[in-house]
């Protein structure tokens, strides 16, 4: 049977209608798929937010329930040399009660009875591992002897005291974890963690916490040391880099030994800084956390600022006045040097019955007092722990940086302040 022109047209129309219907069905399925994926993504996002809120509440709950005031007795369970100068101390609570969690990057404050000390010495050391309910870990570097042998007094070095006198089984007095330099574990933004020498300790705590939490946040970890003799936690860092696709460990030697081999012992030669980051990192869009020697800290801070990294994304552990001064200068809005103390001010230390003239040679009132054999408490020496708080009976101070510790009216933190006028101090 032959088909007429009308029939051909009818068939064509039917075919087009069929294609149209099929396209509608396909688009509906596609739209449904897109909608479903959008809903699933929204559900996953909300579930993640709920989990973060629950984790934050559980953290606060445990911290409130398990933390303590004053000192708590800890037993040195293990003393583990990491190299010839750095030793890790594993501390278990003597009362066997669980430990409160801490923010990775925080430190412990120790009350020590040094052999040559006339009273209890307060010192702070960063926690070097992620939070554990059974133990805390600190890793401490031995102080080298001073260039002037006449000034050598290892009895006054708390770090050397740990190395030479603290042994497994000993009991130590420890205050609860504290400090404002820590990683916010409830965020998932990319980070760059940088440790210089023994400054590895707080950022290693952050790295371990990221990995152990199961977080997939992009994490770059830079360790700057001179050579393999200073390269600590080597196998641990290699394992984290190998087993976690979101973790990128880069070891940087500034002065490799003849036997050190690039690619085997270290990744890069030079110094950790913004110039190196420009070559290695995909962009500058990270939060940067670092701790190390003052020259490295100063170079890093200014280098990152010159690379247009906002100051709000630069975080560092400020231990020591040199570090504080560099931050202070950079913080001034017009880039001018922050106000400094003059000289010629009279400082009266009433308890010590000494009156001295401030000559500007010391970086802080605490250093000035120590140089003149005036006994003052101190801990972190960065305005964070509050150990050095001293009553001001008369006069005013300038601060090198804003204190992290609370300071009552009429008092000052001597570790980060200099006299602004003639002063009388209750010390």
From TrEMBL:
Alphabetically sorted, this entry's keywords are: 2Fe-2S, FAD, Flavoprotein, Heme, Iron, Iron-sulfur, Membrane, Metal-binding, NAD, NADP, Oxidoreductase, Transmembrane, Transmembrane helix
Q: Which reaction does it catalyse?
A: 2 nitric oxide + NADH + 2 O2 = 2 nitrate + NAD(+) + H(+); 2 nitric oxide + NADPH + 2 O2 = 2 nitrate + NADP(+) + H(+)
Molecular function terms, GO-annotated: 2 iron, 2 sulfur cluster binding; flavin adenine dinucleotide binding; metal ion binding; nitric oxide dioxygenase NAD(P)H activity
- InterPro entries referenced in this protein's UniProt entry, alphabetically: 2Fe-2S_ferredoxin-like_sf (IPR036010), 2Fe-2S_ferredoxin-type (IPR001041), 2Fe2S_fd_BS (IPR006058), Beta-grasp_dom_sf (IPR012675), FAD-bd_FR_type (IPR017927), FNR_nucleotide-bd (IPR039261), MRET (IPR050415), OxRdtase_FAD/NAD-bd (IPR001433)
Write down the CDD domains for this protein, in alphabetical order: fer2 (cd00207), flavohem_like_fad_nad_binding (cd06184)
Every copy of the 2Fe-2S ferredoxin-type domain together lies at 345-427
Q: Which cofactor does it need?
A: FAD; heme b
* One Pfam family, short name: NAD_binding_1
FAD-binding FR-type domain mapped to chain residues:
69-184
The family database entries (PANTHER family) matched by this protein are listed as:
1,2-PHENYLACETYL-COA EPOXIDASE, SUBUNIT E (PTHR47354:SF8), NADH OXIDOREDUCTASE HCR (PTHR47354)
The family note in this entry says: In the C-terminal section; belongs to the flavoprotein pyridine nucleotide cytochrome reductase family.
Q: What is this protein called?
A: nitric oxide dioxygenase
What is the organism lineage in this UniProt record? Bacteria, Pseudomonadati, Pseudomonadota, Alphaproteobacteria, Minwuiales
């Amino acid at each position: 049977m032959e088909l007429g022109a009308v029939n051909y047209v009818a068939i064509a129309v039917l075919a087009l209608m069929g294609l149209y219907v099929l396209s509608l069905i396909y688009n509906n399925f596609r739209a449904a798929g897109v909608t479903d994926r959008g809903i699933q993504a929204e559900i996953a996002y909300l579930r993640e937010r709920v989990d973060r809120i629950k984790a934050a509440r559980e953290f606060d709950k445990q911290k409130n329930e398990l933390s303590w005031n004053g000192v708590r007795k800890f037993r040195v369970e293990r003393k583990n040399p990491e190299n010839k100068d750095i030793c890790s101390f594993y501390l278990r609570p003597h009362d066997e009660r669980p430990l409160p969690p801490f923010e990775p990057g925080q430190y412990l404050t120790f009350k020590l009875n040094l052999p040559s000390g006339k009273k209890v010495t307060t010192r702070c050391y960063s926690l070097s591992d992620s939070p554990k309910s059974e133990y805390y870990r600190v890793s401490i570097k031995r102080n080298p002897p001073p260039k002037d042998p006449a000034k050598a007094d290892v009895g006054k070095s708390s770090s050397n005291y740990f190395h030479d006198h603290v042994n497994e089984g000993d009991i130590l007095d420890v205050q609860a974890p504290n400090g404002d330099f820590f990683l916010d574990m409830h965020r998932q933004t990319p980070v760059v963690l940088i440790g210089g020498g023994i400054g590895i300790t707080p950022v290693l705590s952050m790295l371990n916490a990221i990995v152990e939490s199961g977080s997939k946040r992009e994490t770059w970890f830079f360790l700057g040391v001179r050579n393999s003799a200073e390269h600590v936690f080597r196998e641990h860092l290699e394992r984290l880099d190998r087993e976690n696709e979101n973790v990128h460990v880069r070891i940087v030697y500034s002065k490799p030994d003849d036997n050190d081999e690039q690619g085997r012992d270290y990744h890069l030669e030079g110094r950790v800084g913004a110039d190196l980051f420009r070559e290695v990192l995909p962009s500058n869009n990270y939060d940067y956390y670092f701790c190390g020697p003052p020259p490295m800290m100063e170079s890093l801070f200014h280098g990152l600022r010159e690379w247009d990294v906002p100051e709000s994304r630069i975080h560092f552990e400020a231990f020591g006045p040199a570090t504080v001064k560099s931050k202070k200068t950079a913080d001034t809005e017009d880039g001018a040097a922050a106000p400094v103390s003059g000289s010629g001010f009279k400082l009266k230390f009433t308890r010590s019955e000494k009156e001295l003239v401030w000559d500007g040679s010391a970086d802080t009132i605490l250093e000035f007092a120590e140089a003149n054999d005036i006994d003052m408490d101190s801990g972190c020496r960065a305005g964070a722990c509050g150990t050095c708080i001293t009553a001001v009976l008369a006069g005013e101070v300038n601060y090198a940086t804003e204190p992290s510790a609370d300071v009552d009216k009429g008092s000052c933190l001597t570790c980060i302040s200099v006299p602004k006028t003639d002063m009388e101090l209750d010390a």
